[in-house]
Amino acid sequence: DGGITQSPKYLFRKEGQNVTLSCEQNLNHDAMYWYRQDPGQGLRLIYYSQIVNDFQKGDIAEGYSVSREKKESFPLTVTSAQKNPTAFYLCASSLQPWPSDGYTFGSGTRLTVV
Amino acid sequence: DAKTTQPPSMDCAEGRAANLPCNHSTISGNEYVYWYRQIHSQGPQYIIHGLKNNETNEMASLIITEDRKSSTLILPHATLRDTAVYYCIVRVNFGNEKLTFGTGTRLTIIP
Fold first, then answer.
1. Which chain B residue lies closest to A92 (C-alpha atoms)?
2. Does the distance separating the beta carbons of B46 and A43 come in below 8 Å?
3. Integer Cα distance of A92 and A3 in angstroms
4. With an 8 Å Cβ cutoff, are B87 and A107 in contact?
5. A6-50, pLDDT tens digit by residue?
6. Is the per-residue pLDDT at A97 higher than 60?
7. Are B36 and B87 in contact (CB under 8 A)?
């Protein structure tokens, strides 16, 4: 079955450490996205990539970095510069041009800084 | 900039129709209305979308007013599994514009 896989589901990080969240899709989608969600809030866009080896900042990119070396993969690194990294992180993908069923989301990674 | 306005929460009895409103008074002619839902601690799930005609699929119906300034998502026979946060989003159906999620409506289905 095609879909998006995010791993791990839960992640704990010590303050001052970088951590990388994995996102893999086998949908042959060109575009991939990372969102952050805080309790009781909507989703905020961190980074997105429309094509391999290219990506753009979203609304809250500070303290995060990404890479897109393969079409299937779009890992997100939460760096020590991110002041409040504890959140629920969601990865999504979509075809280009914009498909009728919009974005496909992964099941998310819950990051907690301890 | 909020493009849509939704009530923060709603209740609906199980088995009844759930009607979720959304105001998008500044919608432009080439913007579509999309609905997603997010069950607790999961990724959002696409439900339906439309431009100006009413739409129906196996999950829901979407009613868009003639002036396109508001819409209603209808879940015809709500079940407990429909308890979720429902997001109404407007965007063009081309180009590089990304999905922007507001805070949505938290729908609770009452047994």
1. B43
2. no
3. 10
4. no
5. 999 999 999 889 999 999 999 999 999 999 999 888 899 999 998
6. no
7. yes
